[in-house]
Amino acid sequence: MKKIQIKTVKGFNEILPPESFRWRLVEDKFRNLLEGYGFAELRLALLEPTELFARSIGGETDIVEKEMYTFLDRSDRSLTLRPEGTASVVRAYNQYSLGKISEINKLYYIGPMFRYERPQKGRYRQFNQLGAEVFGEASFYQDAETLVMLAQFFHALSLKGVDLHLNSLGCEACRPAFRDHLKSYLDERKEALCGDCQRRMAENPLRALDCKNPQCREAVTDAPLISDALCDGCRQHFEGLCGLLEVAGVDYQVNPKLVRGLDYYTRTTFEFLAGDLGAQNAVAAGGRYDRLVEELGGKATPAFGFAIGFERLMMLVDSEVTPLTSPFAALIPLGEEALRLLFPIHVELNCRAAVTTLSFQQKSLKSQLKKADKEGVMYALIVGPDELLSGEAICRNMRTKEQSKLSLNRLGEALRELYHEC
Ligand code: ATP
Ligand code: MG
User: Fold this and answer.
1) Confidence of residue 336 (pLDDT cuts 50, 70, 90)
2) What's the whole-number mean pLDDT along residues 253-277?
3) Is 402 helix (H, G, I), strand (E, B) or coil?
4) Mean pLDDT over residues 349-374, rounded?
5) Which long-range contacts (C-beta less than 8 Å, at least 24 apart) are formed by 96-99?
6) Span 293-328, pLDDT tens digits
7) Measured from the CB, is residue 22 less than 6 Å from ligand 1?
8) How far, in Å, is the centroid of ligand 1 from the Cα of 312?
9) Who's near 105: CB < 8 A, 6+ residues apart?
10) Distance 184 CA to ligand 2 centre (A)
11) Domain that holds residue 186
């Protein structure tokens, strides 16, 4: 037989036990919190028509230019593995007319995203996001409610050193003039900018403001700031939001150079940054996008949303929250008849969440006890020919080494009682 070893595609992150238990605890907290705020879950397609992302995220963004997993299917349609959730949620909002169901729609999602990036700590090609979107509410109260909710989530997970950075990107009324102003500033310093920023200057000069390239950073030190160019509506929106965050006791820093890599944002944009994460320090990000629903063929609808990077979040969550994963009891049969007697008890207990182990192979008492010890069980329950004759099983407490007898007639019940005691 020719053996081959097949491994995952490079950078596709998988979650194994016991880490997967920790993930589920955090996921449950997220669901409970969001459902408390009136959000409902969407479980959407992983594969979308490429056009959805090219249109919504923007042709001049990192994601669309170089990070998407795009391919032709068997009928030559261009499809893309979703690189983020918002575009799909908006697509679904329009496709299923979710706006007709209720005026305000609060939707959340949890699941994998795919981006062709260089794999490194905190950056993968398949990674997971916890995200949410609110449709139909233009008020800055909505921005504040969502940001306070995120801060509550991080607080509930006891995260420390996570800072909220906030900016306003203006709207159709004030951004175009600012963009032109910034463009002429950048034109004068064109030579100092990196290739990406030079190329994007015509379409999206704002991106130069938060480019990580040291030379670009230097070039934009004295660049005009959008905060000085906001129209009255955008300024009131931003000030209103800041005021509500203060009342709620959520700390934030205004960062007028925060732009974010996606084209669809209007007004509020934000990032939660964690010092402990090193270079990949954004744990969550999002903002307002009042034009996107309409751009993707729906009725004009204001919207606000965010996405949390699940892998990065888990790097910040204390690893002590791992739940106890040891089984409660090892059922130890010595011989075929004992195995036959224990099997129905084993499946009955497992069905009631009392995890037991049962070896289906005929192993010696010594080796089964050794295994039980390794598994860290509370009890070992031994049934061999002698016990079958006497009608009583031996129940060994693995911590205290005390042994007692349990009647074979009511073994299931007795084990259930023990399980509830521990
Ligand atoms: P970054 O600046 O780190 O590239 P981004 O701006 O591309 O982040 P978003 O598109 O806003 O990220 O996605 C929201 C969150 O998803 C990020 O804040 C981050 O926590 C997480 N994230 C983004 N890309 C990756 C990736 N390749 N691997 C793991 N997590 C990621
Ligand atoms: Mg990115």
Assistant:
1) very high
2) 90
3) coil
4) 93
5) 98/135, 99/135, 99/136, 99/298, 99/299, 99/301
6) 999 999 999 999 999 999 999 999 977 655 556 889
7) no
8) 9
9) 93, 98, 99, 134, 135, 136
10) 27
11) 175-226
The last residue of one of the domains, among 268, 287, 314, is: 314
Number of domains forming the structure of the chain: 3
* Structural domain contains residue 160: yes
**Burial readout 49-80 (b: 16 or more C-beta within 10 A, e: otherwise):** ebebbbbbbbebbbbbeebbbeeeeeeeeeeb
Tell me, using a 6 A CB cutoff, whether residue 129 lines ligand 1.
yes
pLDDT of residue 325: 66
Is the CB of residue 311 below 6 angstroms from any atom belonging to ligand 1? yes
* Domain edge (last residue) among 288, 314, 340: 314
Between the CA of 315 and the centroid of ligand 1 the distance, in Å, is 14
Pocket test for ligand 1, best of 123, 163, 289, 306 (most atoms within 8 A of CB): 123
Closest Cα to atom 11, ligand 1: which residue? Answer: 285
C-alpha span between 354 and 350 (Å, rounded): 5
Distance 82 CA to ligand 2 centre (A): 14
**pLDDT tens figures, 73-111:** 999 999 999 999 999 999 999 999 999 988 889 999 999
Q: Is residue 345 predicted with pLDDT exceeding 80?
A: yes
Residue 137 vs residue 204, higher pLDDT: 137
Q: What is the pLDDT of residue 129?
A: 98
- Amino acid identity at 166: L
What is the domain-level CATH number for residue 139?
Answer: 3.30.930.10
pTM: 0.91
Q: Does the CB atom of residue 282 touch ligand 1 within 6 A? A: yes
Q: CA 404 to CA 395: how far, in whole Å?
A: 5
pLDDT of residue 320: 66
Residue nearest to atom 10 of ligand 1 (CA): 84
Q: Which atom of ligand 1 is nearest to the CA of 313?
A: 20
| Residue identifier of the C-alpha nearest atom 15 of ligand 1 | 309
Q: How far is ligand 1, taken at its centre, from the CA of residue 55, in Å?
A: 19
282-288, strands of its sheet edge to edge = 40-41, 105-114, 126-135, 303-309, 282-288, 268-274, 162-168, 253-254
pLDDT of the residue at 352: 85
Is the distance from the beta carbon of residue 132 to the nearest atom of ligand 1 less than 6 Å?
no
272 has pLDDT over 60: yes
